[in-house]
Amino acid sequence: MDTVLTLTALQVMKTFLFLFAVFFFLDPAKNAFFDEKCSRINGRCTESCLKNEELIALCQKNLKCCVTVQPCGRDKGDELDEDSGYNRTRG
After folding, report:
1. What are phi and psi of 49, to 5 degrees?
2. Distance between CA atoms of 1 and 24, rounded to whole angstroms?
3. Would you write out the chain's pLDDT as a tens digit for each of its 91 residues?
4. Domain range list for the chain
5. Whether 64 contacts 45, CB under 8 Å
6. Cut 0.70: pTM above it
7. Helix, strand or coil for residue 84?
8. Residue 71 host element (H or E)
9. CATH assignment of 2-71?
10. Are the CB atoms for 32 and 44 separated by under 8 Å?
11. Which among 26, 61, 32, 62 is positioned nearest to 44, based on CA atoms?
């Protein structure tokens, strides 16, 4: 009976040690809900802006207020005038 208890305790200890190692080395997930908001809630305060973001202001604690840049697309009616290099809309 004692050997069964010892084996069970050893298995529990190994499992606990394995789970501790896995959770210790995992990166914590960042929840964007708790990030400080800026620029009328359109921006977020962070240490550095991402590639698709633009720095528009400064936040507290030396953080930057970053807003996602919206890509500008061309209309279907616009076509590039290759000779002059500007867009011309068909009328």
Report:
1. -85, 150
2. 34
3. 556 667 688 888 889 899 888 888 876 766 666 566 787 778 888 889 999 999 988 888 888 899 988 877 765 555 555 555 555 555 4
4. 2-71
5. yes
6. no
7. coil
8. none
9. 3.10.360.10
10. yes
11. 32
Please tell me what DSSP assigns to residue 80: E
Tell me if 86 sits within 8 A of 70, measured CB to CB. Answer: no
Q: How many C-beta atoms surround the C-beta of residue 61 within 10 A?
A: 8
Distance separating alpha carbons of residues 10 and 16, to the nearest angstrom? 10
User: Residue 58's Cα: distance from chain center in Å?
Assistant: 19
**Can you spell out the DSSP letters for 11-68?**
HHHHHHHHHHHHHHHSPPPP-GGGSPEETTTTEEEESS--TTEEEEEE-STT-EEEEE
